[in-house]
Amino acid sequence: MTTTVVENDVDNALVADQAREITTKVDRPDLIFRGIIRTSGIAVLTVMSLIGVFLAYRAAKALDVAGWSFVTEQAWEPDSGKFGVAAIIVGTVLIAVVAICIAVPLAIAVALYISEYAPRRLQSTFVSLVDLMAAVPSIVYGLWGFFFLQSNVTGVARWISTYFGWIPFLSVEGADPTDPLSPSTVYTSSTFIAGIVVALMVAPIICSVMREVFSQAPSGEREGAYALGSTKWGMIRTVVLPFGKGGMIGGTMLGLGRALGETIAVYLIISPVFIIQPRILESGTSSVASLIALRYGEATNFGTSALMAAGLALFLMTLVVNFIASSVVARSRSGAESG
């Protein structure tokens, strides 16, 4: 009898120790919300796919004529059968790189000041000002760059070319550094000027991402750094910046995606040339978006197909950049590290 009772107690204990199956009941509001979110995601993917299909369909005629030379040809003469994106892709990338080189240090400095140094009562004001910069239309930046910046930055471009012209991409053909009366037109409508304008346009986007990531740095690690005798900058260097590394990379690439596709501001400033122009201080460059804006109104049917092919190249390049940026930002939010 005693043995039976003990065995029953053991069996009951084993049953009690077994993991219970947890079930969740999905209510109607949850189902509706899940359906809305799923539909929104599918709609975004569908629209992006339709854009790509549309561009590929409209570009098929031009791509069939150009073949692989579309990637290597520099000239843009669609009606004569000689056209390609080699020059305009290089120009697009150079303008974006110049913009990122200027915008990233500026965005890091502003984001750190707002999140770490600014008085709390002024933080929301600074955030609003940065967001307001992102809301300014690109045409305004373009007009400012054309009428104000271009005439005032040529002196800086001349100085850079004079003292650093031994670096190939900082040299300027046709300019005499020893002649102070040499015309400044060789320094206007350049990749450098367009890059500065685009930098001011993408800096608020980069700054917003970085500021959000910096503000999420663990307070325990901040206090631990201070407890070990760290200074304010020491805490930022050892805690905030390592924690926000993923967000910094992601924000930079999001800004790069915006810079690659900028149209009106670049269109107003540059002087289009359809050769590979690696010298950023010299007048003349090109970009895919500005080419489409410049040539679309006067293009023939075949010329329009060629412009669609250029747009397809820009679409694919921007899509890849933004996809990588989104992945980096998502990873930084889910498990950022500090060291």
Task: List the SSEs and their pairings.
Blueprint: H1 2-17, H2 28-66, H3 69-72, E1 76-77, E2 82-83, H4 86-117, H5 120-135, H6 138-164, H7 191-214, H8 219-227, H9 232-243, H10 245-260, H11 264-269, H12 288-295, H13 301-335
Antiparallel strand pairs: 1-2
Helix pairs in contact: 2-13, 4-7, 4-10, 5-7, 6-7, 7-10, 8-9, 10-13, 12-13
The run of helices and strands is HHHEEHHHHHHHHHH
Q: Might you state the CATH topology name?
A: MetI-like fold
Weakly predicted, low-confidence segments: 334-339
- General form: flat
Number of domains: 1
**Number of E strands:** 2
What's the gyration radius in Å? 28 Å
Category by helix and strand content: mainly alpha
How many strands, which pairing sense, and closed or not: the largest β-sheet?
A: 2 strands, antiparallel
Termini distance?
64 Å
Mean pLDDT: 84
**CATH architecture annotation name:** Orthogonal Bundle
Helix content: over 70%
Strand order within the widest sheet? Answer: 1-2
CATH class: Mainly Alpha
Tell me the strand percentage band: under 5%
